[in-house]
Specification:
The complex is a heterodimer of chains A (about 70) and B (about 400).
Chain A lengths: L2 H15 L7 H12 L3 H13 L4 E4 L3 E4 L2 H4 L1
Antiparallel strand pairs in A: 1-2
Helix pairs in contact in A: 1-3, 2-3
Chain B lengths: L7 H5 L8 H9 L3 H16 L4 E3 L12 E2 L1 E3 L13 E5 L8 H14 E7 L5 E7 L4 H10 L15 E2 L13 H11 L1 H5 L9 E4 L8 H4 L2 E7 L4 E2 L1 H8 L4 H6 L7 E4 L2 E4 L9 H5 L4 E2 L4 E7 L13 E7 L6 H17 L6 H8 L1 H8 L21 H5 L1
Parallel strand pairs in B: 7-8, 8-9
Antiparallel strand pairs in B: 1-3, 2-4, 4-6, 5-6, 9-14, 10-13, 11-12, 14-15
Helix pairs in contact in B: 2-3, 4-5
The chains are: A mainly alpha (about 70), B alpha+beta (about 400).
Chain lengths: ~70, ~400
């Protein structure tokens, strides 16, 4: 699977979880790898690109989560 | 200079014999509004017995999920200087060695972008810079990283590994704790800066069982230098010690496994029963030395009481050669993290997970053979593997 495709899957997953469940990095790696048959390292690399670009961010609420930055979530 | 706020409760803390953080904050308040307002807010908290900090949130630098701890005042109108008061963790060098130039460099940057106040060092192993605003984080990070520094760990990540002074100043160190700490830091950069775990994970590396860094009580994984062969005994030096100390009372009777005898002026050690605690060696440094076949004992699971009570670490590998490139060590760590990732609940430390699922289950799943050194206390040993059928019977 292409890197851009994985990135889209990750973003969609995080977007769908807004207001329902905060996702940890581990949750995303497990879910995307299991649902789409992609290696966890591939998912991790795609997620890192999203975070480096600022498309997704780390947040801390008693634990560390991956979320959409406030402006993009609006 | 007059104080911005009356602080009678904080003033009480200056009256004891020990150095007070209040004195240092007052010095900083003479040139920093942040420090002045911090005194005011802390005084109010003491008076009301209520914190006025909001913690966490969406604060950090681009690409990293660690290294910045968000903190805001919940009464910013009253104390505008601490409306934002984020903490920045800077990865400290192994053994906390700095040149004075390096310290000046960091402090100049912190005067420019933050409150000027620090905590040297936090128990996380970092240099902790206390108090800055959100808009100062990226410029500070750019300047800090351009000078070769990096942020440390925070959140559900590998925390900045820390160690004792090791071989740099201590001839009793059985492993190069500083080299190992540096290697772990480099090896796990991704796990440190991009939190992926159920909760935090701390490494602490001690050169010997004296454990000057208190790794056994503070680290999820402790690496403690040890030896596999026999303690080296210099009987001539034993005789010298006999003239100035009570060897039976101070060494023999304090041996936790009772493996030392002292008769006819000769000290004898049954090394097969020695637990390598270092007590005898630390008391008779000229007469006793560790063996020559050196490595480390790996322990797992300690933590302070945050979500649940405090735990001390358990031995999981009695002896491992700790030599570069440390493949055996990293393979073990990765297997443990995989098990934690599969089974751990949110905010559950590895030690708590072992408590919940049991130590035998941990050993079985991770593929570690039980060993007598793993017995932590009576009725808490790893040798009972009850199957479902056994329980039904």
């Amino acid at each position: 699977m292409e890197r851009e495709e994985i990135k889209k899957i990750i973003y969609d997953l995080v977007e769908k979880s807004v207001g329902k469940k905060k996702l940890k990095q581990g949750d995303i790696l497990k879910k995307v790898a299991a649902d789409h048959g992609v290696e966890k390292d591939e998912v991790k690399a795609a997620l890192r690109e999203l975070v480096d670009a600022g498309t997704l961010i780390f947040t801390y609420f008693g634990g560390s989560y991956i979320e959409i930055p406030p402006k993009e979530a609006v | 200079m007059s104080k911005k706020y009356d602080t009678p409760l904080l003033d009480e803390l200056k009256k004891g014999v020990f150095p007070s953080f209040v004195v240092e904050m007052e010095k900083a308040a003479a040139r920093s509004d942040m420090a002045a307002d911090l005194l005011g807010q802390v005084e109010l908290s003491y008076k009301e017995k209520l914190t006025h900090w909001k913690h966490g949130g969406i604060v950090g630098v681009r690409g990293y999920g660690s290294g910045v701890i968000g903190r805001y005042s919940d009464i910013p109108d009253k104390f505008p200087g601490v409306a934002h008061f984020h903490t920045v963790r800077i990865n400290a060098p192994s053994g906390f060695y700095y040149t004075s130039n390096a310290l000046r460099e960091i402090m100049d940057l912190w005067d420019k972008y933050g409150s000027g106040m620090t905590n040297m060092h936090g128990s996380t192993g970092d240099m902790i810079l206390l108090g800055t605003r959100s808009e100062n984080l990226e410029p500070l990070f750019a300047e800090v990283s351009s000078r070769g520094w990096d942020l440390g760990g925070s959140g559900s990540a590998v925390r900045t590994p820390s160690c004792c002074l090791g071989m740099s100043r201590c001839e009793w160190s059985n492993i190069d704790s500083q080299a190992i700490t540096y290697d772990i830091t480099q090896h796990y950069q991704d796990e440190m800066h991009r939190p992926a775990f159920p909760y935090k994970f701390k490494f602490k590396i001690a050169g010997c069982a004296v454990d000057c860094i208190a790794s056994i009580a503070r680290a999820d994984m402790s690496v403690i230098g040890t030896w596999r062969d026999k303690i080296r005994v210099d009987q001539n030096e034993v005789k010298n010690y006999a003239s100035k100390m009570d060897i039976k009372a101070e060494v023999v009777d304090l041996c936790p496994t009772g493996c030392i005898t002292y008769t006819g002026g000769e000290l004898t050690i049954d090394d097969s029963n020695c637990s390598r605690c270092m007590n005898c060696i630390a008391r008779m440094t000229k007469a006793l030395r560790p063996g020559v076949e050196k490595g480390a004992t790996i322990l797992l699971g300690s933590k302070a009481p945050i979500v649940t009570g405090a735990l001390m670490s358990w031995v999981i590998v009695p002896f491992m050669k700790m030599e570069p490139p440390y493949d055996e060590f990293y393979e073990l760590v990765d297997k443990i993290w995989e098990w934690w990732d599969e089974n751990g609940k949110n905010r559950e430390r590895i030690g708590e997970l072992i408590e919940r699922l049991t130590f035998p289950r941990f050993l079985k799943d991770v593929g570690i053979e039980p060993h007598p050194a793993m017995v932590k206390e009576p009725r808490r040993d790893p040798f009972f593997f009850w199957s479902e059928e056994d329980i039904k019977r």
